[in-house]
Design goal:
The protein is mostly helical and 43 residues long. The protein has one helix at 15-29.
């Protein structure tokens, strides 16, 4: 699971928001948040 870097917008992203994004990323990895898509591979 990956999220693109902020690149030119890095200065616009607060540490608090970045922390929330990183926590959400970890929650997705840990299975706490389910991401569904019609295009996801079928297990």
């Amino acid at each position: 699971m990956g999220i693109a870097p902020y690149h030119d917008q890095q200065d616009s992203v607060s540490e608090e928001l970045d922390g929330e994004v990183q926590q959400l990323k970890q929650d997705i990895i840990d299975g706490k948040v389910k991401v569904e898509s019609e295009n996801a591979p079928k297990a």
